[in-house]
Amino acid sequence: MAHYSRLLKIVIDVPPADHDRELAFWSAVTGQPLAQFDRHPEYHGAALHHQDFWLLIQRLGHGPGRVHLDIHTDDLPAETARLEKLGAEPVQQVNSWQVMRDPAGMLFCVIPEPAGALKDDNAQRWE
Q: What is the pTM of this model?
């Protein structure tokens, strides 16, 4: 089935003890305030320089600091199946998104988008 996907976010995952310092650092680096999300308060973020590309800072509950990427799609099952064929492994479902592991063992997320949000001018179409 045809669907769309695109790389949309860089997410910096930070242990609680380092969160505030990391948030201040990346806000200064980008020159933008990174606002806390109401629905998921463990995240702060913004579109970079009013582009359609985001930087997020995620406060971890546990685990080491790391960076991961978010791929957005209008068909989560089709995109995760496509990525599995390329060598990714599903790790766990969290809220509405799928955490996956790439062939080198690095985590990334696949995030669902509403129908119509992704199209030929802002995403890759897959047949």
A: 0.89
39-55 pLDDT tens trace: 999 999 999 887 788 99
Percent of the chain with pLDDT over 90: 89
Collapsed DSSP state (helix, strand, coil) of residue 75: coil
The whole-chain average pLDDT of the chain stands at 95
Closest CA to 35 of 26, 45, 25, 23: 45
Q: Distance between the two ends of the chain, CA-based, in angstroms? A: 6
Give backbone dihedrals phi and psi of 36, rounded to 5 degrees, phi first.
-75, 140
What count of Cα atoms within 13 Å lies in the side-chain half-sphere of residue 28? 6
Q: Each residue of 15-41: pLDDT tens digit?
A: 999 999 999 999 999 999 999 999 999
How many Å apart are CA 39 and CA 37, to the nearest integer?
6
- Alpha carbon distance 116, 21 (integer Å): 38
Q: In whole angstroms, what is the distance from residue 73 CA to residue 32 CA?
A: 26
CA triple 99-102-103, angle to 5 deg: 150
